[in-house]
């Protein structure tokens, strides 16, 4: 987490800076990934940001001199939990009433559908109205198939989504969310993990 | 595949350009990934190269002005096949007699061990002596545990490894290799993973 200009941490915590909330959600998920890794619970990493490299100065320790950000075609995080393939994305929602579908790129939606068809666990972590939700890819696809709306009402997210706990040491505990949201998939397998 | 200076393709194919072989192996694997994706066989992507961004010009369409390549701590490719988590790396070996262990970063080795312990399919695709091999992570760890040598003799790779087919339309067919190398894991869903 970033505390610019040496702002006191305790004070900073009480100030909700909406401009940086996207950053914060990612940090809180990254904290969880580190926690799971250190405690051998799951191996889930954020994929590096896709970048198109235009110019590299090989004479100078291969410093990249020109590059640009590319649009992601997959979701940001993926890895393995209890033998299962897991992939998800973190989405910050500033509206209090509904989550705009356009927050999810067309390519990402196609990818999400594929992952589910191949038996993977695929979802969004949505930050909305000061809560964090695990919103299953299956529920997202069902909503898109039935509704013509371009946004998901908060009520749907709050009802269908699984509320995630946050605390300072573990970050946003999305694995606990997986255990509940996908309990049949997780429990019925004989994928015995021994460490 | 790259054919610089408009060299005739047929001619070029007979010339082994060792300098570009790393690139070629990657291209041939990327071709396979595209083929599997298009035919809905597996969803496996090359992760973007990890890059540390130093300077971005936000005034100019967010062009990256300074960045550097970071050392990877995971393997290059990951995804899902028949519901299973798959991760691997492509390694070009120029020596005809042995594969140097130092080709695999310390972090990558640690990561490979973790993935296997969590029930994932994890291996190397090694290009050596004009052949392509799927070399299982389990066999790599077994070799490292028993031997103090800093390289794996070609004989071990040729014996323990699974030879992979290459053809122009499918690239290096590593999924066929997975079907053979991990047939128990792939065929019996409820198989316990033992290392």
Can you give me a brief rundown of this structure?
Helix content of chain A is 34%, strand content 30%. Chain A is an alpha+beta fold and 195 residues long.
**Largest inter-chain contact set:** A-B, 43 and 40 residues
Oligomer: homodimer
The fraction of residues assigned to DSSP E strands of chain A is 25-35%
Roughly how many Å apart are the termini of chain A? Answer: 31 Å
What is the C-level CATH assignment of chain A? Alpha Beta
Our Rg estimate of chain A from Cα atoms comes to 18 Å
- Mean pLDDT value of chain A: 85
The largest beta-sheet of chain A arranges its strands as 1-4-5-7-8-10
Task: Name the overall outline of chain A.
Answer: globular
- How many E-type strands of chain A? 12
Return residue spans of chain A where pLDDT drops below 50 for at least 5 consecutive residues. Answer: 1-23, 190-195
- Largest sheet of chain A, if any? 6 strands, mixed
């Amino acid at each position: 987490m970033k505390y610019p200009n040496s702002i006191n941490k305790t004070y900073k915590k009480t100030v909700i800076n909406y401009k940086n909330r996207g950053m914060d959600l990612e940090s809180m998920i990254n904290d969880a990934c580190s926690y799971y890794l250190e405690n051998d619970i799951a191996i889930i990493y954020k994929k590096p940001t896709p970048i198109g490299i235009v110019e590299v100065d090989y004479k100078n320790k291969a410093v990249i001199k020109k590059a640009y950000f590319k649009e992601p075609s997959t979701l940001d995080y993926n890895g393995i939990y209890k033998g299962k393939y897991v992939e998800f994305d973190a989405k910050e929602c500033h509206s209090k009433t509904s989550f705009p579908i356009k927050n999810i790129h067309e390519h990402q939606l196609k990818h999400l559908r594929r992952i589910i068809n191949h038996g993977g666990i695929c979802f969004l972590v949505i930050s909305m109205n000061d809560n964090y939700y695990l919103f299953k890819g299956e529920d997202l696809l069902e909503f898109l198939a039935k509704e013509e709306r371009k946004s998901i009402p908060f009520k749907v997210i709050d009802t269908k989504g699984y509320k995630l706990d946050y605390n300072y040491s573990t970050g946003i505990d999305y694995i606990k969310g997986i255990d509940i949201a996908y309990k049949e998939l997780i429990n019925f397998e004989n994928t015995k993990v021994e460490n």
